[in-house]
Amino acid sequence: MSEKTYFIKEAINPEFIAEQIARHSSKHDIGGHSIFLGQVRADDINGKKVELIEYSAYEEMANKEISKIREAAFSKRSLTCLHIYHSLGQVKAGEISLFIFVSAKHRKEAIAAMTELVEDIKYKVPIWKKEILQDKTEKWVD
Prior knowledge:
Strands 1, 2, 3, 4, 5, 6, 7 and 8 form an eight-stranded mixed sheet that branches. The protein has a domain at 7-39 and 62-127: Alpha-Beta Complex (Aldehyde Oxidoreductase, domain 3). The chain has helices at 14-22, 59-76, 107-124, and strands at residues 7-9, 32-39, 44-45, 48-57, 79-92, 96-104, 127-133, 138-140. Helices cover 32% and strands 39% of the residues.
């Protein structure tokens, strides 16, 4: 039996996001959704724009850590659904690299859970970012 993966190759497609949202219209016990979309910025670094970010991860460990984060969110909050997707590989400026979708009976639960989830994923999951600049120079992000 294969482990659950939370990763998508390259950018997260807007149509995929729309499909995930549409699937929840038949769930009538949901009162609120909170959606977070992490988008790659074209930051200026020493006069050069970020063209894309290349994401890499220790996938086995990262999947386990995201599973723990999900379980903790369900045990702490009264959630109906929780979906997490993170990109691996190259994601261009303007594209989506992180999609989190939280549903709950009440909006306050969904919103509070989202804030915690984004921080936990950012600081606990072994995902690394390498910025590729316009001139093709590379810079690892701390």
